[in-house]
Amino acid sequence: ILKLKISKTKFSEKKITELRKEVMLKYKFNENEIKYLVFSNKVSNKAYKSNENERINIIFKNGTIGDIATVSDISNISTLSETVEKFFLCYPVLKF
Question: How far is CA 91 from the centre of its chain?
């Protein structure tokens, strides 16, 4: 079973190396195998891809249409169009 940790900051090479050594000792993997079992990378997501000509409109029950930027509780709708990056560290569970 693999465990996944997610962080706003990159995991240090020292942390990854220590974790690889620990997993190698516990499960008897060699150095070629361990790179497939303990690894880190980043993922990114953009919730909303906007351009100036496109808007998200909301249709209300009464049939009226409103721009989400003016009717939403979100104080800064432009934050939805920003790319969010997170870093992850994946490794086998060390304790059962």
Answer: 16
Please give the model's pTM, rounded to 2 decimal places. 0.70
Token duo for residue 18? 């220590």
pLDDT tens string, the chain, 96 residues long: the values are 899 999 999 999 999 999 999 999 999 999 999 999 999 999 998 877 666 667 778 888 999 988 776 776 666 666 667 889 999 999 999 876
Output the furthest CA–CA distance in the chain (Å, rounded).
Answer: 65
d(CA 48, CA 45): 9
What number of helices (H) and strands (E) belong to the chain?
Answer: 3, 5
Rounded to an integer, what is the distance from CA 89 to the centroid of its chain? 11
> In whole angstroms, what is the distance from residue 46 CA to residue 36 CA?
28
